[in-house]
Amino acid sequence: MTSDIASLTLRALRRVLRATEIGSRQLAVATGLTTSQWLVLREIEARAKTTPGVVAQALQFSQATITTIVDRLVALDLVQRQRNANDKRQFLLTATQAGRNVVINAPDLLHLTFTGRFVKLPSWEQAMILAAVERLALLMDAQDIDAAPLLDSAAIDQSQPK
Amino acid sequence: MTSDIASLTLRALRRVLRATEIGSRQLAVATGLTTSQWLVLREIEARAKTTPGVVAQALQFSQATITTIVDRLVALDLVQRQRNANDKRQFLLTATQAGRNVVINAPDLLHLTFTGRFVKLPSWEQAMILAAVERLALLMDAQDIDAAPLLDSAAIDQSQPK
DNA sequence: CGATATTAATTCGAAAAGCGAAATATATTT
DNA sequence: AAATATATTTCGCTTTTCGAATTAATATCG
Q1: Segment B151-162, tens digit of pLDDT
Q2: What is the CB neighbour count within 10 angstroms for residue B130?
């Protein structure tokens, strides 16, 4: 029996993923950034304060790649680099106000095209879908051990200089 | 009220997307292809027989880009190019057996990490999640008007030469 | 303490991605 | 048949991406 519930769910989930995969590329075009630049900026903005290494790991890019992308984001004045005073090997990355604005004002394609249809569903179904997707998110979150959790200041040396 | 059900669902959905976004990059590495090559190959394999133009549209790449990526996939003997006899402007793209094998044998990260947890859920919950995700897929599918449906032979001229 | 490893990030060189514009060849329209 | 439209490739160029080597700072251990 190849079509058990898990397989069917995966198949449906893949359809969802495929539909959004394309939206993310359109989004990058809309913001005037490349897909990678957009991903990196989003990551930095979400983490508030992080380092190239953490971003590289979370996004599965090489450190060298992050360096060049951040170079551009800095040139565009969307991101700021500053040395970590406590561990001078590290650079701390933060989004500038402009960078935050790009992320915040990015046309939310998912939102635009999705919400309209979603709200037309009967509320019991909305509730059911919410419950299901939250369950899914839990299943998936636990999975990515490498992709450090959002807002992890763990990797940043916060100790006070003596 | 900013936290209506739609917003909550979107937020959870984004967590799911983020988790898989990263997985897809690992996958490309695992198959020895670049991410783009993997996407294109997957697209060709899924559609069984298609054209550069259709792939470009579905993936939101320029035609020129598809040409170069297909060049590589052909060189790797994963994809075949052949002129369409009915419309000689078109090239028909098909995955070779080797290409199909790459797609089929690709470690299914989603599957591996997901199924294990999923099957541990009580079956009523599995059923609920399946129903919800299928509903979601419907909502999203209808959205991407550009991304032609899978297995579309519509764009391929099938008429018999006279 | 001082030598040695480890860690964080950058620079460099090269392959590949990605695209717009021009070119080529085939189809369709008038 | 000429003009127009379509499908794809070729060309030139910029950007992405990464591995390897490099630089600098921190950690370890004898």
Answers
A1: 344 455 555 543
A2: 22
Residues B127, A110, B12, A15, Cα dihedral to 10°: 30
Q: Which of A117, A129, A144 sits opposite B22 (nearest CB)?
A: A144
> Which of A18, A24, A130 is nearest residue B12 as measured by Cβ atoms?
A130
CA-based nearest residue to A14, from B70, B106, B7, B52? B106
Q: Which band of pLDDT confidence, cut at 50, 70 and 90, is reported for residue A148?
A: very low
Interface probe for B, chosen from A128, A139, A141, A150 (most Cβ of B below 10 Å), is A139
Q: Are B128 and A132 within 8 A, CB to CB? A: yes
> Half-sphere exposure of A161 toward its Cβ, with a 13 Å CA cutoff?
5
Check residue A121 and give its pLDDT.
87
In whole angstroms, what is the distance from residue B41 CA to residue B69 CA?
A: 9
Task: Report how far residue B143's alpha carbon sits from residue B145's, in angstroms, rounded to the nearest whole number.
Answer: 6
Length of chain A in terms of residues written: 162
Query: What are the tens digits of pLDDT across the range B2-31?
Result: 558 888 888 888 888 777 777 788 888 888
A38 touches A141 (CB < 8 A):
no
Q: What is the mean pLDDT of residues A76-82?
A: 92
> From A59, which residue of chain B is nearest by alpha-carbon distance?
B22
Amino acid at B79: V
> Which amino acid appears at position A56 of this protein?
A
Q: How many CB atoms lie within 10 A of CB B100?
A: 16
Alpha helices, DSSP H, located in B32-161? 35-47, 52-59, 63-75, 97-105, 109-118, 123-143
